[in-house]
Amino acid sequence: MNLFIAVLYLLICSMFVTSLRANLSESQVQRQKLIVMHLAQTIVFLGIFLGFAWTVDYSFILGIHFLAFGVVIPQLIARLILQRRMKDPQFQLKRDLFTSLSAVIGITFLLLLTALSLFPNRLSSSGANPIYDTEYFISRISFWLATIPAIIFYFISAIQRTTFYSEGLLHNGLFWAWSDLHAYSWKTKELSLLPNKNLWAARQIDLKIPSELKEEVESFLAQRLKKGVSLREKPA
Asked: Which of 39, 49, 199, 215 could form a disulfide with 32 if both were Cys (CB 3.0 to 4.6 A apart)?
């Protein structure tokens, strides 16, 4: 049983490193390869976990550690590092209302879960007093390892703005080098950036550009990308 737990924690550590590298990668090709690797690790972990979790007393804690260190924390660390790494922004766009609203809803829900987790799940034999034992504190701390980083992640998502740099674009916590973008096109005030096709064709990036910035953004992009046709439009 100790071997089983050790294997799962090794997988969690491996997922942490893979997810962190994927989110920090400045190459779309490398990012997609690391995403595939992370997906494979997740499938292996879930297969083993779901197959043997009922035999382990620490299945809840294992599940929380999977969410915390395999999913949430590496994305949080990557966003903080990227924000610090990039210098001299050229343009910053207004925050997307939908993204900000989603982040606020996520933060509210997680704060509610965190507050509810403070209540004990066991009472004394008389039923009058809650039991605050070692099991209570271990389970709660493990739970907070996932919820607190997730709250910080949602907060950063709400305040982080799409930013144009000379080296590339920082959008939704990921960095896109200009060499990984094929072309751009305009539809009124909406800018579409078309990623290169590597392991798979990434979804185009749609950005709303204020009218006062459109001319500057056009001049900036014209030096780095070719003008193309939106994926939502057919070439003539």
From this structure: 199
